[in-house]
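Q: What would this chain look like folded?
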Amino acid sequence: MNSMAVLPIKVLLQTTIPTTTDDWSIARFSLLTAFLRDQRDSDGAPVFDVTARDRTPPGAPDPVLASLGESDFDEAWLFAVDVGNGLTEADCTGISHFRRRGSGLLVTRDHMDLGSSVCTLAGVGNAHYFHSRNLDPDLSRRAIDDPYTTYISWPNFHSGANGDFQVIQVAGAVHPVLVDRASTTGAIRFLPAHPHEGAVGAPDGEDARVIALGSSKVTGRQFNIAVAFEPGPLGGPAIAQSTFHHFADYNWDPRMGCPSFVSEPPGDGIARNPQAMADTHRYVGNVARWLARRSI
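A: My prediction, written as structure tokens:
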């Protein structure tokens, strides 16, 4: 055995709802899970050891989340797919402790108030703006962007149909999670689209900045896609992402299906543009390594 072998990065992929067939349970992130599990290093060893799970039933703290700060996970990806009540106080305390000890954290949500239970997470929670909690400080952004799905209000930036891709813009210097050395720009160019993305921003008092921007297909307005928190005294590396749909099966391949409440017709842009899926895979791999402070 090679005594210098590097242990795989222990990754937790976690939703904020119990297992529910007709919802965005962890089973609807199976392509992401499989992609990470399939990654190999130069010796053929797995790069990631992935645990994918939904939260336990509501009414009590989730035993994994509430004790996350004492776990052996290197990083956690939190898909806030709840309607605002997915995390208990003890869950948030456990997740916040996890990052404060130096571990990596990605937190993502969706439109309006979907996933607003993340608001009380230390640091990263403040990067997520919702309709009725932790509102965007830019008053001009408290306005409907997607006019088609009328029962969804702001924030709801329309970057395209599920199953299509969007062209992203690098904000500032190219962050490591956006690096693509094979690209003519040195950065990834595409991510999955979604009809109503949420809002994120860099909160005051944190070593954080917006690293990627999208543009609305309806209004042309630019919006923030991702905010990166550098590791430091306040905690480990972190990413606040505008929507979990950048990682969902339905957005990578609409043939995988979606919950019955999704009403918008899907597109097929990603299927017709292999580079869009390649960029998405690169982004996922870059984020997973960066959160664990591994080289990209």
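The radius of gyration is 18 Å.
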